[in-house]
From TrEMBL:
This is Monooxygenase. Belongs to the NtaA/SnaA/DszA monooxygenase family. It comes from the Bacteria. FMN binds at residues 57, 103, 153, 157, 228. It holds the Pfam family Bac_luciferase. It comes from Bradyrhizobium icense. PANTHER family: ALKANESULFONATE MONOOXYGENASE-RELATED, C2H2 FINGER DOMAIN TRANSCRIPTION FACTOR (EUROFUNG)-RELATED. Gene3D superfamilies: Luciferase-like domain. Keywords: Flavoprotein, FMN, Monooxygenase, Oxidoreductase. The lineage of its organism: Bacteria, Pseudomonadati, Pseudomonadota, Alphaproteobacteria, Hyphomicrobiales. Residues 25-392 form the Luciferase-like domain. SUPFAM superfamilies: Bacterial luciferase-like. One of its GO terms (molecular function) is oxidoreductase activity, acting on paired donors, with incorporation or reduction of molecular oxygen. Coiled coil: none annotated. InterPro entries: Diverse_substr_monoxygenases, Luciferase-like_dom, Luciferase-like_sf, NTA_MOA.
Length: 455
């Protein structure tokens, strides 16, 4: 079968999309705290045969800039953050085949809790759940979850490795065929096929037995977005859908090869994973129509949007010094969170000591400077190039207008991608794994990888 791309809708259970200025757009719906808002998005994505609707998440509103939340609330910079798993449940009620992915942190939840939440969503949706594994970003999240400070970057991933072993271990404890449900004999399930985990490790203890049987797809799809070297090792070991954010084909190809190499080193088949690059398309029936839309979108972002999101993502207060004063090497080294952002700014700016303004300029945070603008042909050409050049296996489609951006993409771009044979015309099955072409995991198969325990 000819290789085809995966498409994921990038969502936020909040007052805006990943672009904080999106709520300011005159055509964006202003009822982002309603069921109907998310169910309309779900219907649009399923009509467009998207593989998955995915929610990013944080456990705090951005308040690292100036160590105050006032600007966040005043300008609506992701200040509302609802529980995405509950929102996904409402979306599952109006869809049948759309995958349902959500973020949940390994740093601030217990493995048993996460395993149960996602296994339940998987059953309730008929095998359509996906878990985006994150280690969280900053001190704001730590303070909300009863901690004094956020854990150090690489240490968080060390904990997350063991967290994954516990979650997957619980998911594996109900064998296929465990359920009997024989009313005549009174036997509900075979106790010989339901085991306790009894995990005792460096960071976690969890006994079991687990309380949720396996779903139609085995267990939820594992999503990851590690960009640093340590993050890529984690993604290579565990991720099945990997989110990337390369700004050009060359960078995309470099990251694509790196993650697949990490997967191979971990004893995995690199073809059993999908790397999907974050993309912001602004599309219309014609290029001229799209350019008119972009002109309005460009008027919406504020400088404070970028500064606030940079401070949040790097756990560093960019208000601590003037915008144009170079940051010291010590200050750069003290940054935590998404280190790929810091490293990207260093690389793209060509400066050893960039300023806060350089971070705004070269990070793209809170902005739309990397948007792909055009009619169906122009958008499809750009996506096809990165896909064919093996910069990715698909795309995470971000919105500037809700739900208009998703509707425009489905109306104008999806048919063109289908015409070129780059995107499927219908779902292959009912589960997320079937539609992605991922194998149903056998219980405990992850333990047999040659370097599954190597880090």
């Amino acid at each position: 079968m000819t290789r085809q791309m995966a498409l994921v809708g990038f969502l936020q259970a909040q007052n805006c999309t990943n672009l904080p200025s999106s709520w300011r757009h005159p055509e964006s719906r202003d009822d982002s705290m309603s069921v109907d808002y998310y169910q309309e998005i779900a219907r649009i994505l399923e009509a467009g045969k998207f593989h998955m609707a995915f929610f990013d998440d944080r456990l705090a509103m951005p308040d690292r800039y100036g160590n105050d939340h006032a600007h966040t609330v005043e300008y609506g910079i992701r200040c509302v953050k609802m529980d995405p798993l509950i929102v996904l449940t409402t979306m599952s009620m109006v869809t049948e085949k759309l995958g349902l992915g959500s973020t949940c942190s390994t740093t601030y939840y217990e493995p048993f809790d996460v395993a149960r939440r996602f296994a339940t969503l998987d059953l309730m949706s008929g095998g359509r759940a996906g878990w985006n594994v994150v280690t969280s970003l900053n001190d704001g999240e730590a303070h909300n979850m009863g901690k004094d400070a956020h854990l150090e970057h690489d240490f968080r991933y060390d904990r997350a490795d063991e967290f994954m072993e516990v979650v997957l271990g619980h998911w594996d404890t109900w064998e296929d065929g465990s359920l009997i449900m024989d009313k005549k004999t009174g036997r509900f399930a075979d106790p010989a096929k339901v085991k306790r985990l009894d995990h005792q490790g460096q960071f976690f203890k969890s006994r079991g037995p687990f309380t949720v049987p396996r779903s139609a797809q085995g267990h939820p799809v594992i999503i990851q977005a590690g960009a640093s070297g340590r993050g890529q090792r984690f993604a290579g070991r565990w991720g099945e859908v990997i989110f990337t954010a390369a700004r050009n084909v060359a960078a995309a190809k470099e990251g694509y090869a790196a993650v697949r190499n990490e997967a191979a080193k971990a004893g995995r088949d690199p073809d059993q994973m999908f790397l999907c690059n974050l993309t912001t398309p602004v599309c219309g029936a014609t290029r001229a129509e799209a350019e008119d839309k972009m002109a309005l979108i460009n008027k919406l972002p504020l400088e404070i949007d970028a500064l606030s999101l940079l401070a949040e993502a790097l756990n560093y207060d960019f208000a601590a010094k003037p915008l144009d004063e170079p940051l010291t090497s010590e200050e750069l080294k003290s940054m935590q969170g998404i280190l790929g952002i810091r490293d990207g700014v260093l690389k793209n700016s060509g400066k050893i000591n960039p300023s806060a303004r350089d971070f705004v300029t070269f990070s793209g945070r809170g902005q739309v400077q990397d948007a792909i603008v055009g009619g169906p042909k122009e958008i499809a050409d750009k996506l096809e190039e990165m896909f064919i050049e093996r910069g990715c296996d698909g795309f995470v489609i971000a919105a500037t207008i809700v739900p208009g951006s998703y509707a425009d993409f489905v109306k104008h771009v999806v048919p063109e991608l289908q015409r070129r044979g780059l995107f499927h015309k219908d779902y292959a099955g009912k589960t997320l794994r079937e539609n992605l072409g991922l194998k149903r995991p056998a219980a405990s198969a992850w333990k047999t990888r040659p370097q599954a325990a190597a880090e």
